[in-house]
Every structure is written in C-alpha cells, then in structure tokens.
Amino acid sequence: MTDGLKKKIVKEIKVDLDKCIGCRACEVACSAFHANPKYSSTNPARSRIRVMIDDLNDSYVPIRAGDYTPSECTGRHTYTINGKEYRECSFCGVSCPSRDYFKEPDSGLPLKCDMCEDDPPLSEPMCVQVCPHDALIYEEREVEIGEEEVKREEMEIGLEALAKKHGMQKVMDAVARMSMSKKG
Questions:
Q1: Highest mean pLDDT of the ranges 17-21, 75-79, 131-135, 152-156
Q2: Residue 135 buriedness (CB in 10 A; 0-12 / 13-18 / 19+)
C-alpha cells in the first residue's frame, strides 16, 4: 500500500436497462423508506430514484439522485437513442434549479441517494430489494483514496442550499429562533 492512501468501500447501484419494465416499485420503496416516520407513507416525489420513461419506445431508465448543484449545467447536448432525441437532463441525477427532480416537495431541499444507510444496516438499498426483475444490481468494491477526502453530510448540503437561496444570516436567525423555542 502506498503512503497516504487508505481504502474505503464504494457502494454502487448498477442498472440493467434490458430488465427494467418501468414498474416504479423502486420509487415507492425509496419514498417509504425515507418517510418520517419510516414506512408511514409513499410519495414518489420524495424518492431518491426516478424512472425516466419513454412510452413511445417502451424503454425505462432508473436514475438515482446525486449531488446538488446551485446552477444549471452548461451542457445542452442531445442524444439519439433508437431514433428518439433526449436532452442530457433526461439522464442526469443532479438536483438543480432547472427542474424539480430530486427536491423535497415541501421544502425544496435537494435529495440525494444515501444507499438507504440505516442502523442496523440493510444488506442492500430498498430499491434493489424490491425490484421484481433484478434490473438494479447492488455492488460494493474497495478503492484506495487520499487522506484528505471529505464526505459532505446531507445536513451540510441542505443548509448550504438554504443559505444560497435565503442568505446565511436568515438561516442563522431561523436556527437561533428554533433553538430558543425549544428552551422555552
């Protein structure tokens, strides 16, 4: 092992597009898992996975929520698949200002796939467990990383989004009001 390198487990969900039938069971299971309290409701708008559907060609593409970006991307390429044109956004997992995918419907905060991390841990994410045709495949692999890699937590990403939208002072004032109301 090289000096300064550590190992970590990378978790991945691969998609077999030939097996996806567009049933959206993955969306329902994900939204139920992330409901508060857990499994109390299902709302696919809260899901961290979305099945993009092309009814004309009968094809389906499950996309998982990735990182938040505060600006729209500059890539406006189109791809032709089986004679139909798709915008780059059709296959993008980023939560961004140009569309409403992967945003919490009530607050507008960005959603990101967390691989259903839980305590006790699940053997594999809920979307993979419920897929009736094994279109979603969960894999773990070990990779070497540098010492300085930092993982941003969901709360930090959400607070950053709020600060960019409303300003840091308003966010800090709201947190102060909330902490005062808890004391009283």
A1: 131-135
A2: buried
Q: What's the length of the chain? A: 184
Place of tokens 């937590």: 153
| Residue-wise pLDDT tens digits, 47-102 | 999 998 876 667 888 999 988 777 777 666 777 777 777 777 777 778 777 777 88
Domain spans in the chain, listed from the N-terminal domain onward: 5-147, 152-184
Residue 170 CB partners (closer than 8 Å, separation 6+): none
Residue of 167, 55, 71 whose CA lies nearest to 110:
71
Q: How many CB atoms lie within 10 A of CB 22?
A: 16
Nearest-angstrom CA–CA distance, 62 and 23: 10
Q: In this structure, what are the phi and psi dihedrals at residue 83, rounded to the nearest 5 degrees?
A: 80, 0
State pTM to two decimals.
0.69
Pairing of strands 49-54, 59-64: antiparallel
Judge contact between 162 and 171, C-beta under 8 A. yes
